[in-house]
Structures are given as C-alpha cells and as structure tokens.
Predict the structure.
Amino acid sequence: MLIGDGVRLAKTSVGPMDNNAYLLTHDDDALLIDAAAEPDVLLRQLERVHVVGVVTTHRHHDHIGALAQVVAATGAPAYAGTPDAGAITLATGVTCREVWTGDTIEVGPVRLEVIGLVGHTPGSITLALTPADGPVRLFTGDSLFPGGLGKTWKPADFDTLLVDVTTKLFDRFGDNTIVHPGHGDDTTLGAERPHLDEWRTRGW
C-alpha cells in the first residue's frame, strides 16, 4: 500500500500475541518496525530489499523475539528509544542505536520523526511519517491503541503516558492522522480524541 512520499507499507501479524510488524519501503530501501516474532516470516519479506534499519518501539519481550535473527541476517542497524535500549540489548544481545524525541530515522530520502512516549515503558517510541501527499502516519507501538492507552502498572505511569500522548500526538497532529498500533487494527486521532477525558477519568 502506497502511503505517501513514495513509501509503501506492509503490515504483518506475527507471534502468539498477534504483534504487528510494519515494513516501510522506498524503492529498494526498507525499514522494519518491530521484529517481534517469526523471523522466518519477516526474513522472507526482506529477501529482495536493502534493510536500512530495524526499529523496536519498546523493550517488552513480545516485540523483540525476532530482533537478533533479523539483524544477524540483514546486517541492518537496530534502533530503540534511549531508556529502553540497554534492556533490549540485555535480552537479545543486539546493540541498538539510541534515539529519542527529535531524532529522525530514514528510509530512502524520507525521514521519520522519533517521538518518545514514557509510561508503557520508560523508553517507548512512536515514529511519525509526515508525507506531503497523504495523512500523517503514527507507528505507536503499545502506547496508543483504538480505545485507549497502552497498559501501565502504576497510576503515575498512566498519568505520564496520558500527558505525553496528549501533548506530543493529539495536540500536534490532525484528526485524519492514522495510528498504526503494536497490536490490532488501525485507528485515527479523530476517532480517539473525543475519549481523552474518559480515559483520564477511568485511569487506564
């Protein structure tokens, strides 16, 4: 599927928790978001492209199950949010290039903005693609889903994540912005925006 600025998107559900792995390609260059599981499935998709990076949205085990195999097979650099990078390396043996809010990751000539969202984990990241010829696309990992935020384990973490998602996503991007979460179906900021107060009240 062509999503703007010459970038194509393929979405694959992998693993027992139905994780979404997203492959962005521009000509022969490819960027994989969340090498979560089933490395054989992912590597088949990568056979005819030049993998310029493998991005992990956060450190949870269901998002890193195929990371080591994919990086070893492709030689591509791995990227992760700075506060989560060490835990990912400890779990997988893969050294990650650390990125955080304001950094960019490229596929071909197209830059995706890195946005740090603290709460689901200390170092969760969202990637924002802002094409000139289509709606903004946010790859949010487990920080934002249809119907609410990602799971948090303490009220303070929920509060932090809600503030980050509100100020860094909802306050910045329009209602037609498409959200590609770490599991399940896509949504839009417009569909979720009316429920922010509801999420704040219920605390999850």
Remarks:
- The CA atoms of residues 79 and 97 lie 5 Å apart.
